[in-house]
Amino acid sequence: MSDTHQTDPERSVGLSIPAEYAGEFVAEVFEDAERSTDWPGVVDAFVPPNQREKWEQLDPTAQVCQVLERARSYDQSAVETLEGIDADAERETARAAFDEALRCRRNADGFRNAVADAYASGRIDDDGLVAAVERTGFETDAIARREELVELIAEKHGFEFRPYGGTLLDGDRFQTDSSDSATW
To answer: What is the rounded CA–CA span in Å between residue 70 and residue 155?
Structure first.
């Protein structure tokens, strides 16, 4: 086999999704079958009461963009927190940081799951969902890095965690930041 036919293990495989199935495909990517995070619950946790009127004036695509951007922010926070855990950190110190990273992980995944709920309940249509994903530039690199770090830290320090794809939220509770500037 020549070099031109070999596959680079770091190279991703692109799939062509017909336009009529794109929204459904995206919603399935965001959905976690073991969780029942709903759109109204995320909106309640994400949008401060004094901003609800402005929120309701946004079109559904803009709302989903805001939620996806916040999910990305949670992913970035989780990665930064995990990267900040020294290999020789005391167990208690490492555990506190690990727990914070898991909180961010739960929120990021919960927010994306709520977007799947918004799609399933008809709050956003195929075109709106695809447009929101395109506008926010959804990338899986941060999620992959987050999961890699969770596994590495858990193994190094002997922490228990539920692997990605499991139930990552405890009920419908979200632990958002308290400042309005950190939310919508």
So the answer is: 28
